[in-house]
Design brief:
300 residues; mainly alpha; 3 strands; 11% strand; elongated
């Protein structure tokens, strides 16, 4: 019997790659708790723990689950089996190696469920299930669509330090833009790092008929507003700021804003509040500082 066990362990180890690390899943019940207690531990370095797993592998992850003993709706064994299945998935355990927050782990579980094939409980016939080749084709199409939406191709990766798969395409998880950073202008710096590698592709992707139609529409929309407000502005400021100045200002500001900004929804042309502000500033300068309106307008 011992020889059979050793042979089985050797067979299991022969199927594993070099550098494979193990995970321990410990589940149980307690009478003194009302809610489940879960702990997921990632060790800084894998260590060998004798008599913990079937084969001799260094342990990197430890999952502990305790459920209330009187809760019949929560099967700790099934939860443990489910987590073992998650850890055997290459994409999920790659996330587990670099996860920092609970939300990232939950997001990885949701992605695993999106790619899973679920069989409903009860009696089911084999002929009612899609062939495995069709399931794989559906998975590849889903990954391709996700890659087009996210800007990368996705894919399954290996262990830590693997150069292929998700680690290569996706990189580290994106930072929450609403979260404060510990350095001055940290959010702006992160936005520049994430945005400007795709700066050239923004121009290449815009070379199509739909963007050309939108450009013509926006041009005439901005032109009509600049002419209308420029005419009124010339009347209110005694032609210190007229149609020509408004057109030039709108053109220069629009080009600079489109090249270096990140939000295209900001109104860059002249509007009603700007017109009222310039009128009030012109009246102030005419009564207090004659012929100094343009200088004040630049500084203000």
């Amino acid at each position: 019997f011992d020889s059979m066990v050793k042979a089985r362990k050797q067979d299991i180890l022969s199927c594993m790659e070099d550098g494979t690390e193990g995970a321990i899943v410990l589940v149980g019940t307690l009478d003194d708790i009302d809610k489940p207690i879960v702990a997921f531990v990632r060790l800084a370095e894998a260590i060998v723990m004798p008599n913990t797993i079937e084969v001799s592998l260094p342990v990197r992850f430890i999952f502990i689950l305790l459920t209330p003993s009187d809760n019949m709706n929560m099967d700790h064994h099934e939860i443990g089996r489910s987590f073992c299945t998650l850890m055997s998935n290459p994409a999920f355990h790659n996330v587990a190696y670099r996860v920092e927050e609970k939300q990232e782990l939950l997001h990885a579980i949701n992605e695993f469920l999106d790619d899973s094939v679920v069989l409903p409980p009860g009696d089911w016939d084999r002929k009612h299930i899609l062939p495995i080749n069709e399931i794989m084709e559906m998975r590849q199409r889903r990954k391709a669509r996700k890659g087009q939406n996210d800007g990368d191709g996705g894919g399954d990766g290996g262990g830590p330090g693997d150069d292929g798969g998700d680690d290569k395409d996706k990189g580290p998880p994106k930072r929450n833009p609403m979260q404060r950073t510990s350095v001055p202008f940290g959010g702006l710096i992160d936005d520049i790092k994430n945005r400007y590698p795709q700066f050239l592709s923004d121009f290449k992707d815009g070379l199509n008929s739909q963007c050309l139609a939108a450009t013509i529409f926006i041009y005439f929309a901005a032109l009509s507003g600049a002419i209308a407000f420029g005419g009124i502005m010339g009347t209110k400021t005694e032609n210190d700021i007229g149609i020509s100045e408004t057109l030039i200002m709108t053109c220069i500001c629009g080009v600079i804003f489109a090249l270096f900004s990140g939000c295209p929804l900001i109104i860059i042309g002249t509007t009603g509040p700007v017109l009222l502000y310039d009128e009030a500033l012109f009246e102030f300068c005419r009564n207090t500082l004659p012929k100094q309106f343009l200088y004040w307008r630049v500084w203000v």
